[in-house]
Amino acid sequence: MLAGHVVGSCWYLFGLQRVNQCLRDACGNSDHECRDLIDCGRGDSYQAFAAWKSNESASACFQEDGFPYGIYMKAVNLTNHTSLFTRYSYSLFWGFQQISTLAGNQEPSYFLGEVFFTMGIIGLGLLLFALLIGNMQNFLQALGRRNLEMTLRRRDVEQWMSHRRLPEGIRKRVREAERFNWAATRGVKEELLFENMPDDLQRDIRRHLFIFLKKVRIFSLMDESILDAIRERLKQRTYISSSTVLHRGGLVEKMVFIVRGEMESIGEDGSVLPLSEGDVCGEELLTWCLERSSVNPDGTRIKMPSKGLLSNRNVRCVTNVEAFSLSVADLEDVTSLFSRFLRNPRVQGAIRYESPYWRLRAARQIQVAWRYRKRRLHRLYTAQSGYSL
User: Which residues form the Cyclic nucleotide-binding domain (predicted)?
Assistant: First the structure.
């Protein structure tokens, strides 16, 4: 746009100069007083102006074939046009046309200034064309770079699986996991993006990304400082359908916050609890870490067994799941820093009310207590009556 304005303006200006040169050449064969009539405001003789107007050489300057105008031929009558908008629009059009065609339809005269101006238009057009090609190449490379990275990643994974001689069933799951992980992250590592950002900007971005924490009742009761500490330690995770997140009897090593997808929690009694967006599994780690960070009244820390927490349920993915996880080590850091706030009775109540783990545990304790009471009543009845139920 800028180049079109510049070229069109120069063309109109140089066209004026060529018309002026033609008029001056016409004055060379007539009365020299006509030179005062070329510029506006300098002539004051009506008779001189009438004589100059009837001069054939001067009239020929406003004819396209009356002077070797070359590339300024269309500017001859344009300079005498009364509409400013028409002069501006046509000059802009001419500039765009010559840049796009590299002045291929122009034949300059032997005037050196005109020749150099035409060469300048050609050089400017070639430069802009080269910049356009370079920008298009960079744009296309940027579009294909991610696809190329994905292709190279798949090739490396295939070579690794072939080298390790993995069975076809595992290979199929690996391909599906790689494909879903790439679709979820687009090959971008968020940790690297956050490194050079200011701390307050990182905090605001994490609050936006992890807004789902507020949907979980357990975390909606916590202070913002605790949530910021949790957000800094969350890691993105992806699971494919039928993947097992927790299995019965295994260690609970992380809390998983579901962003997209569905899971199901299967208890020891076979009961199935669906988990979807906004739910969390492995939340029993929070209470377990709080117990590990407990202190006695004298200030000494309560000694807890070093063995990790065992899961009493199976949690598997029903669909592909995008989630964020919080490891045991990171959760212990948070609970050690904010143990006093996390011991709020409302938080503890929410943990035990919302958690499927604590629900199953409470149901099992009620069942055990009922069996114990039933046996006790049976013994008491037998002792008093002498009969067995």
Answer: 218-294
**Confidence band, pLDDT 50/70/90 cuts, at residue 357:** low
Q: What average pLDDT is seen over the chain?
A: 77
pLDDT higher than 60, residue 304: no
In this structure, are strands 272-275 and 263-266 parallel, antiparallel, or unpaired?
antiparallel
What kind of fold does domain 198-363 have according to CATH? Jelly Rolls (2.60.120)
Cβ neighbours for 178, distance < 8 A, ≥ 6 positions apart: 153, 154, 157
Rounded to 10 deg, the angle between the 328-337 and 284-292 helix axes is: 60
Domains of the chain, residue spans: 2-129, 198-363
Cα separations in angstroms, 287 against 329, 349, 354:
14, 11, 13
pTM for this predicted structure: 0.52
C-alpha of 152 from chain center: 22
How far are the Cα atoms of 252, 338, 341 from residue 225, in angstroms, in the given order? Answer: 25, 9, 10
- Provide mean pLDDT across the span 148-164: 87
Confidence of residue 77 (pLDDT cuts 50, 70, 90): confident
Q: Which residues pair with 67 in a beta bridge?
A: none
